[in-house]
């Protein structure tokens, strides 16, 4: 009809690209995104469960290791304490009887110093000595641990003597013997001087130790056997004067002169470092201030 326009629709024109409705692509993308997030979440949950299980297993093993370590340390402490206790309970009577038994002509089993104390042979010697000592009426009631400890101590003596007889240790052995002999003489000297100590001299003598006594070295002067006396260089003058006073009292006794060598004073002091520890008060009284 004139003056009117009819609506026109294309038969079936396809929609392409950005001409498509906007609601189609976002819905599909969101579904894919939600599906990916859900899958990732499940994976993370499984991964966390696996990690937690592994951590639980590791912690369980660590706790087991800690328990074992604590048990081992406790055992070592007990063994060390028992070992030290046996050492402290050293019985000179057992030690002397054991030495005589080991070295007697009737004993056919002796320690082999070339081998360890735990070797089959030396273990057998220890068992033999233990049975023999336990069978003795004098040691019937003795503790077996004390006897075993004495056996091991004597084995160490046998091994030490064996090692010191080796050519490469001859000088070391002589040095050890000389040091032990010198210390024994200083010990005897301090005990002898203390026996003639006066009441007014006790104060300074409290700090006197074996290391503060003079060394006595064997010598022959003018055909007379005696000792060269070398006082330590770190000893104070006050203690040195007291030692001289006490020594004069000893030598005034005929019995002491008859049983001790003559003492010759050398011109120099002995350069020997003190081995013991002292308090500050002791240092002020007994040590020379350098």
Mean pLDDT equals 79
What percent of residues are in strands?
5-15%
Using only CA atoms, what is the Rg?
45 Å
Give the oligomer, counting copies of the same chain as homo and different chains as hetero. single chain
Summarize the structure.
This protein has helices at residues 24-88, 92-103, 120-135, 144-164, 170-194, 202-205, 237-251, 254-259, 280-286, and strands at residues 215-221, 224-230, 262-265. The protein is mainly alpha-helical. The relative contact order is 0.06.
Descriptive account of the structure:
This protein has 290 residues and is mainly α. Among the domains are: 89-165; 184-286. Helix content is 59%, strand content 6%. The chain is built from 9 helices and 3 strands; from the N terminus they run ααααααββααβα. The protein has a 3-stranded mixed β-sheet with strand order 1-2-3, with helices on one face. A hairpin with a 2-residue loop joins strand 1 and strand 2. It is elongated and about 125 Å long. The N and C termini lie far apart (138 Å).
Task: Please give a handful of descriptors for the protein shown.
about 290 residues
Secondary-structure map:
Blueprint: H1 24-88, H2 92-103, H3 120-135, H4 144-164, H5 170-194, H6 202-205, E1 215-221, E2 224-230, H7 237-251, H8 254-259, E3 262-265, H9 280-286
Parallel strand pairs: 2-3
Antiparallel strand pairs: 1-2
Helix pairs in contact: 2-4, 3-4
